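Input (structure):
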C-alpha cells in the first residue's frame, strides 16, 4: 500500500472514521458523543498515517484500524467492548461496501485506475465525495427515521 499524504488523512480518513462510528452506533441505538467520535477519528487518522509504513500483510492494516477504533471508542465512551466491536464492524462494512462501489464507478467514469490514486493523491478526494455524501445521507436517515438494527442501548454502559 502506498503512503497516505497528510492532507488525504485530514480530509478523508478522519471524516470517514467519524461517519463509521456515528453510523455504526446509531444503527444499534447507542449514543456516542460528537466529541468522542472526533477524538477517536483524529487518533485513527494519525494511526492510519503510520500503519501503511509498517511492513505487514495486506489487509491487516484495515483489520488493525477497526480493532483499535472499537477499543478506543469503548474506552473513551464507556461502552461494552463487544457492543463497540459490533457497531464499528457494521459501520465499517456499510462504508466499505459503498466506498468500493463508488470507487469502482468513479474510477471507471474518469478512466483512471487504482495506481493513479497513488500518483495523483487529489483523485482520492474526487473519488471520496460520493462515499461521503451517501454515508452522511444514511446517517441522517438512520437518525431521522430511527432505523435500528438491534437495540443495545439498555446495556451499553460498563
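Output (sequence):
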Amino acid at each position: 500500500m502506498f503512503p497516505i499524504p497528510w492532507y488525504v488523512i485530514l480530509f478523508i480518513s478522519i471524516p470517514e472514521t467519524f461517519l463509521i462510528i456515528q453510523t455504526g452506533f446509531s444503527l444499534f441505538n447507542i449514543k456516542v458523543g460528537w466529541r468522542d467520535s472526533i477524538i477517536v477519528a483524529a487518533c485513527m487518522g494519525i494511526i492510519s498515517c503510520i500503519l501503511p509504513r509498517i511492513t505487514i500483510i495486506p489487509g491487516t492494516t484495515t483489520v488493525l484500524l477497526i480493532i483499535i477504533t472499537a477499543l478506543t471508542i469503548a474506552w473513551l465512551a464507556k461502552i461494552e467492548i463487544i457492543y463497540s466491536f459490533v457497531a464499528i464492524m457494521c459501520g465499517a462494512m456499510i462504508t466499505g461496501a459503498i466506498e468500493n462501489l463508488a470507487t469502482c464507478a468513479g474510477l471507471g467514469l474518469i478512466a483512471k485506475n487504482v495506481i493513479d490514486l497513488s500518483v495523483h493523491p487529489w483523485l482520492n478526494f474526487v473519488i471520496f465525495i460520493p462515499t461521503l455524501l451517501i454515508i452522511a445521507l444514511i446517517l441522517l436517515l438512520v437518525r431521522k427515521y430511527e432505523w435500528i438494527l438491534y437495540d443495545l442501548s439498555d446495556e451499553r454502559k460498563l
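Notes: The chain has a mean pLDDT of 90. Residues 6-153 form one domain.
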